[in-house]
Design a protein that fits this description.
Radius of gyration: 26 Å
Helix content: 25-40%
Catalytic activity: ATP + protein L-histidine = ADP + protein N-phospho-L-histidine
Protein name: histidine kinase
Pfam family, one: HATPase_c
InterPro entries: HATPase_C_sf, HATPase_dom, His_kinase_dom, HisK_dim/P_sf, Sensor_HK_Regulatory, Sig_transdc_His_kin-like_C
Number of strands: 19
Strand order of the largest sheet: 3-2-1-6-5-4
CATH architecture of the largest domain: 2-Layer Sandwich
Keywords: Kinase, Transferase, Two-component regulatory system
CATH topology of the largest domain: Heat Shock Protein 90
Oligomer: single chain
Number of helices: 11
CATH class of the largest domain: Alpha Beta
Length: 458
C-alpha cells in the first residue's frame, strides 16, 4: 500500500507505461516535457521508475529529477504496481523547483559537438591547413566521396565537399567554413560540415575534426560488405566482420556518450557512470576490431606500403594536434617539433601517422598526470628518426624484449589496450624499410624510436 501523508499529486499509468491521468503539477510537467495525457510518460526518470515497478511487481520510491526547459524539478515519487501488471498508481509527495542553470558558451559548444558526433555519417581528421589526414564513413551513399578523400590525403577537404553558395577564393578561414552547407556528389540530401579545432593554448589550431551531418534521414542501406579502406583484401575480420560491426559499435558508443553527458535530460550520477562504462567498453571493442583488421593486413603475404616523400616534422605536429585534447584531460603537455624544423623521409603518409598516433596515445595512457611528452627529430645519414619520449613508469629489460610481441600487454589489464598496437606499428615500420625500437629503464620513462629511410633528394 502507498504511504499515508501529504500528497501533492496522484496519477495512474497502464500496462504500456502510458500516463492515463494525472493531477497538477505532474500533468503540466508531462506536457512541458513533450508528452500528452493520455500518452507515454515523457519524464525519463519517472518512466524508468514506473517500468521497473510494473515489471518486477514491487513498490518503488525515489527522487525524480526533470528538466522542463525553464526549471529543474525534483520530486519524491512512489509507484505501486497494480495486480496482473495492469499499470501503476503514482503518488508525488514532494515537489521542488529551481531555475535551470544558464548554459555558458563553452558548455553549449560542447553540447553541439556531442550532438554532431552522434549524428555524423562521415568524419575526417584534418591538418592545420585543413588538408585530409584520415576519413571514415557509414553507408553506401558516401562510398564515392570517402574513396576520393582516401586517395587524396594531403588535399584540402573542400576539393571533395564543395561549399554551397561560396564565391570567396579558397582556402577560407575555418570559422567561415564551420557549419557551411556542402555538396556531396551523388547525394540528393542536404549536408553541412562541422569543424572542431584541436586547440593548443596560445596557438592556432593544430588540426581539425571534420564531421559531415545531414538534416534529412538516410533512405539507403548501410554498407555491409566491400570495405572502403583497405588496398588489400582483408580476410575474416577486416573484409567480412569489420564493416558489419563498425557501425553498430559506433552507434552504441555515441548513444552511451549522449546518455553520459545528459544530452537527453537530467540523469542521476550513477546512471551517467553506467553509460560511461558502456561507452568505454564499446570503444575497447571498436579498437580491438580495428587492430585485428590491421593485423590481418600486415600479416598478408606480399603486404607492402605506398612510399612517398613526407616531412616527419609536419607529421609529428599533426599527430600531436589530433591527440592534444586527450593529453590536456590529464594535464599532459606534448612538445612537438618547431614549425621551422623539417626532416624529409620516404614512407607512406597514412602509415607513419598511424604509428605516431599509437606511440603518442600509449604515452598519454601510461604517463602520470601533469607530465610531458616529447617528440624529437634526428637526421642520421640515410635514416630519418623520430623519437616519442614520456615520463611514464618505464620498462625493464625483460619488458623491452617482449613489448613488440603480438597480444603482449605486460600484465596490464583494464587499460583499454589490445596488445596489438606496437606489434602492428613495428610491422608497418619494417614494411616501409625502417624499424621501431624502445629504450627505457624502470622509473625513467620510455623512448620509442621510429627509423625510416631518409629522403636523399630533399
Amino acid at each position: 500500500m502507498l504511504m499515508e501523508g501529504s500528497i501533492i499529486a496522484r496519477a495512474a499509468s497502464d500496462a504500456q507505461d502510458r500516463l492515463l491521468e494525472a493531477d497538477e503539477p505532474l500533468a503540466g510537467l508531462q506536457e512541458r516535457c513533450g508528452g500528452q495525457l493520455p500518452g507515454t510518460i515523457a519524464v525519463p526518470e519517472l518512466l524508468e521508475l514506473v517500468r521497473k515497478a510494473r515489471r518486477y511487481g514491487f513498490r518503488l520510491a525515489r527522487a525524480v529529477t526533470a528538466h522542463d526547459g525553464g526549471e529543474v524539478v525534483t520530486a519524491w515519487v512512489e509507484v505501486e504496481p497494480q495486480e496482473l501488471g495492469d499499470g501503476c498508481q503514482i503518488v508525488v509527495r514532494n515537489w521542488q523547483t529551481a531555475p535551470a542553470p544558464v548554459e555558458d558558451t563553452a558548455s553549449a559548444e560542447r553540447r553541439r559537438t556531442m550532438i554532431d558526433r552522434h549524428v555524423a555519417e562521415l568524419s575526417a581528421q584534418l591538418d592545420p591547413e585543413q588538408r585530409v589526414l584520415s576519413v571514415t564513413s557509414e553507408g553506401a551513399e558516401l562510398v564515392a566521396v570517402t574513396e576520393a578523400m582516401q586517395t587524396g590525403f594531403g588535399r584540402h577537404w573542400t576539393e571533395f565537399l564543395a561549399p554551397e553558395k561560396m564565391t570567396q577564393q579558397q582556402p577560407l578561414h575555418w570559422r567561415l567554413l564551420d557549419g557551411a552547407r556542402v555538396i556531396v556528389p551523388g547525394s540528393r540530401r542536404s549536408w553541412k560540415v562541422a569543424l572542431i579545432p584541436h586547440m593548443r593554448p596560445g596557438f592556432d589550431p593544430a588540426g581539425f575534426e571534420l564531421l559531415l551531418v545531414s538534416d534529412t534521414p538516410s533512405t539507403g542501406t548501410v554498407l555491409a560488405h566491400e570495405p572502403i579502406e583497405p588496398l588489400l583484401r582483408r580476410s575474416l575480420v577486416g573484409h567480412d566482420l569489420a564493416p558489419v560491426l563498425r557501425q553498430p559499435l559506433s552507434r552504441i558508443i555515441a548513444n552511451a556518450e549522449t546518455i553520459r553527458t545528459r544530452l537527453a535530460g537530467p540523469l542521476p550520477d550513477a546512471y551517467a557512470e553506467y553509460a560511461g562504462e558502456i561507452a568505454g567498453a564499446g570503444k575497447l571493442l571498436l579498437g580491438l576490431l580495428e587492430d585485428l583488421a590491421d593485423l590481418e593486413v600486415v600479416e598478408t603475404e606480399g603486404f607492402s606500403t605506398a612510399p612517398d616523400r613526407v616531412d616527419l616534422s609536419e607529421l609529428a605536429r599533426q599527430a600531436a594536434g589530433i591527440l592534444n585534447v586527450r593529453a590536456q584531460e590529464k594535464g599532459i603537455v606534448i612538445e612537438a617539433p618547431h614549425p621551422a624544423e623539417a626532416l624529409p623521409a620516404v614512407a607512406e603518409y597514412r602509415r607513419v601517422m598511424q604509428i605516431l598516433l599509437n606511440l603518442i596515445g600509449n604515452a598519454i595512457r601510461y604517463s602520470p598526470e601533469n607530465s610531458q611528452i616529447w617528440l624529437r627529430l634526428e637526421a642520421l645519414g640515410d635514416r630519418a628518426r623520430i623519437i616519442v619520449a614520456d615520463q611514464g613508469p618505464g620498462l625493464s629489460l625483460e619488458e623491452q624484449g617482449k613489448i613488440f610481441d603480438k597480444f603482449e600487454r605486460l600484465g596490464r589489464s583494464g587499460d583499454g589496450g589490445s596488445g596489438l598496437g606496437l606489434y602492428i606499428s613495428r610491422s608497418l615500420a619494417r614494411a616501409m624499410g625502417g624499424d621501431l625500437a624502445v629504450e627505457s629503464a624502470p622509473g625513467q620513462g620510455a623512448r620509442f624510436i621510429l627509423d625510416l629511410p631518409a629522403d636523399a633528394e630533399s
